[in-house]
Amino acid sequence: MTIQTSKSSPTNSKTPTFFINGRFLSQALTGVQRYAAEIVKAMDRALASGRFPARLHDAEWQLLVPPDAHEIPGLKKITVRRIGRLGGHAWDQVDLARAAAGGRLISLANSGPVLHRDHIVVIHDAQVFRRPDFFGWRYRTVHRLIDRLLARCATIATVSDFSRRELAAVLDLNASTIPVFPNSAEHFATTEPDYAILDRLGLRPQSYFLFIGSRTKNKNLAVAVRAMELLNRPDVPLVIVGGHNNSVFQDNLSDAGSNLILAGRLTDSEIAALYARASAFVFPSLYEGFGVPPLEAMLFGCPVIASAADAVTETCGDAAAYFDATDADALRLRMQERLIMGAVSDDERKKQQDRIAMYSWQRSANALLQFLAQKSVN
């Protein structure tokens, strides 16, 4: 695929142009960046199929990316253009704003230029307003300001009914004007598990609990660590997978016992293997906009023990065992129950499959395209 590099947009004034904010391709891969990448790929498939109105299919589509963008997806309908010289928020507010002038802009990863007037922005949650203690002051201040400005000049979208209600409240918006384009776990559906990771970590199947996520305060890892101490099962460790960004978030991993395995960042194939052989996946989050990892676990028939946070219960429904996120002993009890129960039953597996079937990257991308088609008529 050819990647254009230019300082100005080559768009034809007679052809409508849709620009996609590709800054997520210069960032570390977390749930938000995964969402943006999967939605872009699904939009590209839909546009290439010709199923959508001519005003979308025949339009010019460009994914605008920063100079340091990586892992450019292979796209058929959407052209990738590397633009600008800046980085971070400066690239958003200056380089992207200039390059996207005159077209409709789609930002999928929480941020975008605040002066672009034809702009839809997916904000995944309201954490910077509801739980400011989760963030460093600089990050909190910048994102609160950007969110408030975007709410005044752009269309805000989000990923769950819970986040729609939260964003409507904190940004003084009518919830009915905020469309919802949910996450999915389909990116793991074709992943081949690499079971060699169990040997490398010294694990026995169905004899460990699994935590996946950054060590950020909202992920509430400290409660999982305390629950493991209370469980007092040296033969059943907690495997912790993921990175840590202390420059943005506050660390919450206390000095714990030796019954923890810090696996660091792993490949999707290694993570798939850990899901498939875990006693249970533990998701103790205090606040989420959606909650993708529990769905990923369900794809592999892994039992899910999750906090009763609103977005998590919306996502998981009756396919997870819940506990109060502030109660380590309640989590310990759920872990103990799971060890006694063993692998998921047929009834539990059916519930998992029903939840997984509710979410699809393609359906979310199609819904976004339909929303754009309706707006282009209005």
Tags for this entry?
Rossmann fold; 378 residues; alpha/beta; 6-stranded parallel β-sheet; 14 helices; 7-stranded parallel β-sheet; single chain; 2 domains
The CATH superfamily of the largest domain is: Glycogen Phosphorylase B
Number of strands: 13
In CATH's first tier, which class of the largest domain applies?
Alpha Beta
Q: Percent of residues in helical segments?
A: 25-40%
Q: What structural class do the secondary elements suggest?
A: alpha/beta
What order do the helices and strands come in, and which of them pair?
Elements: E1 3-5, E2 17-21, H1 31-49, H2 54-57, E3 60-65, E4 79-82, H3 88-99, E5 104-107, E6 119-122, H4 127-130, H5 137-153, E7 155-157, H6 161-171, H7 196-201, E8 209-212, H8 221-231, E9 238-241, E10 260-264, H9 268-277, E11 280-283, H10 293-299, E12 304-307, H11 310-316, E13 321-323, H12 328-341, H13 346-356, H14 361-377
